[in-house]
Design goal:
The chain has about 300 residues and is of the alpha+beta class. It has helices at about 55-70, 90-105, 115-130, 135-140, 180-195, 195-220, 220-240, 245-255, 280-290; strands at about 5-15, 25-40, 45, 75-80, 145-150, 160, 170-175, 260-265, 270-275, 295-300. The relative contact order is 0.18. (3R)-3-hydroxy-3-methyl-5-(phosphonooxy)pentanoic acid binds near residues 133 and 135. The site of (3R)-3-hydroxy-3-methyl-5-(phosphonooxy)pentanoic acid has 15 residues, from helix 4 and helix 5.
Length: about 300
Amino acid sequence: MSLTSFGPGKVILLGEHAVVYGAPALAGALQRGVRAVGIPSTDTRLQLPKGLKARMRAQLNEAFEAAAEATGRPAIKVALESDLPISMGLGSSAALSVAVSRLLLRAAGRRDDARSVSGVALQMEQRFHGTPSGVDHACSVAGGLISYRRRPGAASGRAQRLAVHSPLHLAVLLVGERSPTRTTVASLRERKARWPERYERLFREIGRTAVDGHRALAEDDLAGLGDAMNVNHGLLVALGLSSASLDAAVHGLRAQGALGAKLTGAGGDGGAVIGLFERPAQALRAIERSGLPGFSSTLTACGEEQPS
Ligand code: PMV
């Protein structure tokens, strides 16, 4: 008999990077994600997707081993299916970590509640990202929209599920290739070490956009949320995390009527850009007119119930 589990991808609406330094962030689970399918086996094994680069294979194997150890090595062979673009700032490694952790816990006959899944998934994420803030996998475990905060130095933080009055219609554009999150986070850390006061000011200001966005969501003020996203993008530009192509995509979405648009995730040379729209049809039209690959997604309070 086979077992399946799902981990959704995520978008950070407000607060990436600053969240690593203890500022609050808002994130939402996508309908897209990673599905793990397990069949009985003689040992605990990951069937790697074909065509992966050697570095990625090694990382996947290492992360899987961490989860296998943490769950008592249930006898199962795990295959992965994903409709999430990889390494684009959409939380693909966290989605994979959550799907695999949930599946191995179930196969081992252990509890697969949010806390248990989160604990194993964090160990996997640490193999992918070094010292992640935890926002990606917290969002993937919780589903829906969350506010997230990690105390500086703590391994992971606290996620609070948010109520949403109106669903949030997003256009997600994919803008070229980008460096791994680990690299972008490390070079920002170097700039912060060199000019600490200036960078801390910017992180604090980004945290404020997340607080403002949280309030706007509670008041069903989508224009206010969009404005916080626009300001957040400006601050990410100031931190040196955007590029000409990301900025062009952001401006394109605004020209198509987005209430707010920004890069999402680690940024760098490329990655994903999101735009918030009043209606799903507007989001779809904006994607079409951008000429870039992309997809639309609607964020709701509890996330889509995924069959498992
Ligand atoms: O890996 P990405 O692109 O989804 O970015 C993760 C968000 C960061 O704030 C840049 C890093 C982190 O650990 O929170």
